[in-house]
Amino acid sequence: MSKILRIIVLISLYSTTLPPSPLSGQEKEGMVKYTPEFRFADGIYLNFDQVKQNSPIPKSKILTSIDYNDREFFKKILEGEKIYFYDNVGIRQEVAKNTIWGYSRNGVLYVQVQDNFNRITFVGNICHFVADVTTIDSRSYSSPYGYYDPYYSPYSYGNYYSPYNSYYSPYRTNVARNELKQYLIDFESGKVLEFDVENTELLLMKDDKLYEEYVQLSRKKKKELMFVYVRKFNENNPLYIPIAK
């Protein structure tokens, strides 16, 4: 099992086995403390402010011929380039699909990264999710000439014509590949960050005690315990969400 898959399993176990908090009721006016049982309002979230307010564009306001009860409603509606809906004052609006933040289906958030929608598996003041992304790998090939030779191909054999007459020099080409990458979301700002030591430290700075503990660790331990400290941060700094209206 790969490292990322192991983390996903651990996150899923933690999210489903954590007992409900006795403080999960209405502690702040109009808001509830987030627990794994919490369900976000279903709909399209145009931006992260709507996520923080738990106030998406509901299905009932989206203009489409797709059955609202279709289990694949959001998948189908997001196959198009644009989404059409009525705003709060009943005016017809349209928005490009690639500009929206994401959506919620059955109370679960999905965030858009590179035109794909990825389930957020761990929610809190620091969220965690995994996305299948395309990365560009810049690779070098050698040419039998002193600089980039447009006539040279690394797949050619034997002698061929070139106007240049020097010896080997590398030139670069870009190769696209798909890979799973881990990300964090700062629920205060909505920023999506790569899940690495530097960004973990950055987000932990909001909790002085945890931050001081973390920065004292060795580089190896910091890397091993990134998710542990993200979980501790969320336990010490619970997330409150507005009740859907």
List keywords for this structure.
245 residues; 11 strands; two-stranded antiparallel ribbon; flat; 7-stranded antiparallel beta sheet; alpha+beta
Task: Please render the helix and strand layout as text.
Layout: H1 3-17, E1 31-33, E2 43-45, H2 48-52, H3 73-77, E3 82-86, E4 92-96, E5 102-105, E6 108-113, E7 116-122, E8 126-143, E9 169-186, E10 192-194, H4 197-204, H5 208-215, H6 219-224, H7 226-236, E11 240-242
Antiparallel strand pairs: 1-11, 2-5, 3-4, 5-6, 6-7, 7-8, 8-9, 9-10
Summarize the structure.
This protein is an alpha+beta fold. Helix content is 24%, strand content 31%.
The percent of residues in helical segments reads: 10-25%
Q: What is the succession of H and E elements? A: HEEHHEEEEEEEEHHHHE
Main sheet strand line-up = 2-5-6-7-8-9-10
Number of strands: 11
Q: What is the residue-mean pLDDT, rounded to a whole number? A: 83
Cα-to-Cα separation, first versus last residue: 42 Å
Poorly predicted regions are 8-26, 145-164
Figure out the total of helices. 7
Largest sheet: 7 strands, antiparallel
Helix/strand/pairing class, anyone?
alpha+beta
Shape: flat
* Radius of gyration over C-alpha positions, nearest whole angstrom: 24 Å
Strand composition percent:
25-35%
Q: What's the oligomerization state?
A: single chain
